[in-house]
Structures are given as structure tokens and as C-alpha cells.
Amino acid sequence: MAAPSYLIVIGTSAGGMPALTRLVAQLPATLPAAVLVVQHLAPDSTGQPLVHRLSMHTSLHCQLAVDQTPLQAGTLYLAPPDRHLLTHEDRILVTKGPHENNYRPAADALFRSAAVAFDSHVIGVVLTGMLHDGTAGLDFVKRCGGTAVVQDPADAEFASMPESALRHVAVDYVVPMSQMGALLMDLVGQQVSKPEHRPHIPHDLQLEAAIAERVMGTVDEVSEIGHQVPLTCPGCGGNLWEVNEGSVLRFRCHTGHAYTAEALLESSQQEMEETLWVALRMMEERKNLLSNMASHGEGYWSAQQEERIEEIKRHINRLREFLLSGSENTSSAARKV
């Protein structure tokens, strides 16, 4: 097989496998591009059944990505569970680097490394899925001269990922799945050889790609691409830097964790809820202890404990009401998207 003229990088999550099978069925074995796919998977799952399923619907050669494999045209590489799929020059890298947007594999990590390696010969594609992985990745692709394609949210089983991309990035094409294969074939057929001089690749993206390849960066490196802010990394508890460049508000820590603002907000919400549930448990235990103390006393002292019990009951009820209300709102928002 020949080396690819283009990379088509795809990010998807919920509803991704049905969408992928429809897409790859439209792509021929003569495709002059390599197709790299991040499908969010459980860390303890196996990707081989998904590779088999995809291969039943396409003439592309489908395989799980293996570290240091040369990229080849007409081949689809699926990111293994709990591993980032990256590219470096004309090879695949598979790493267990820090999570990005709370995901590993992450579409953003794949899109960035592909954009740095193949510049304008990268086509980034965001399909159906929840939340917002791939949004910053499309911005990386655009900044390196590549093309951004998004599944029409009305056509997606889960519209959240496509809608997030459309809100934040100047997307080039928005198409339903039935038209996407023809569009990709047209895009990779526009130019079959790389130009003599590469487009300018932003220094910050080169540095971020290098950090991801080495798994961990340094404080000095992260300080080159952002400024420190009074926020804490949910992944490791370290300091966060706000990234200076790009159209998507993003944050990084020096160990390699990366977040869009939305992903960071979601992480902080989860941490806050966990903390409040612990507080509720402790207050319940305090109430039980006070009740036990009151039952073993008498007179004024016992009456004091009863007053304290009534006060803590009020706090418990308010906190429980707040937590349950927040859970209901979260579930309602999830149903809407």
C-alpha cells in the first residue's frame, strides 16, 4: 500500500458505530488517504469487535492502531481503548498519555497531532456524540490549513458534539451522513501531492503535539503557550494555564492534562457534587450522634441537643434538596441534547 496523500481524522462518541459503518461503506479501497478514528470506549473494553464490524461494511483495510505502524492509504486505524492515537510524520503513535477533556483516547489529541504532521492535507470530521471532544481539535486543523467537516446535527443521533463544533469553529462543511463519503472523496481528490513548502504550523500547536508525544511536559513549556490562572487541574491537582491561542477557550497543566472550558466546568461540577454528598453524609452522622447524646441526657442539656438536632436537620434538608435538584437538572439537560 502507498503512503497517504491525506489524513482523514474522525472523532465520535455516542451513536458513533452506526454512523461510522454508514460512512466507511461510502469509501473505496482506492482512497488516497489514511482514516484515523477516535471512538470513545470504556477503558476495559476491546476494540477488535468494532474493527471487525467496520470491516464488514467497507473495502478499506481496518485495524486497531499499533504504535510505530507506517501510515498507509486505504487503511482505517481505530484508536485502542484507553490509549491516545497520534501521528508523527508518516507513522502512528499509540500512547497512554494524560486524559484530554477527560477522555483517552481523545479526538482533540488526534486532530492536533495530525494537523501538525500533515498541515493542509488533514480533514477533521466530527460525528455524533455527547459533550464537546473534537471541537478544539477542529480548531487545530483549521489553524494548520486543513478542512473541518461536521455531521449535520439534525442527522446525528446525538447532536451535542456537532453542535459544540459549530458554535466555536468556522466549519467548512456541514453535511448529513448520506453525503459525507462523496464530500470526503472530493476533498482528497483536489490535490494528490504535498506542496514544496509547508504552510506555517503555529508554534504553540507544535509544542502541544510534542508534549503529548512525550506524555509529560514541563512548567516552562506550558508557560510558553499560556498564562497561569487561579484554577486547579481536576486530573492531578496541579496548577492550570489558560492557552493563549485559538478560538476555543482551553486550559492545560504541565503534566499534560488538557481541557476546554466546558470540559473543565463539567469536571468541577462533578467534584463539587461529590464533595457535597460527603458533607451530607457527615451531617447525617452528626445528627445521629446528637440524637444518641440527647437520649442519654436529661433536662436543659438534653433540650440543647434537641435544638442542635433541629438546626442540623434544616441544613440536611436544604443540602439534599439542592443536590437532588442539581441531579434532575443534569438529567433534563442530557435528555434535551
TrEMBL record:
Pfam families: CheB_methylest (PF01339). InterPro entries: Chemotax_prot-Glu_Me-esterase, Sig_transdc_resp-reg_Me-estase. Residues 1-191 form the CheB-type methylesterase domain. The active site is at S13, H40, D133. It comes from the Bacteria. Keywords: Chemotaxis, Hydrolase. This is Chemotaxis protein CheB.
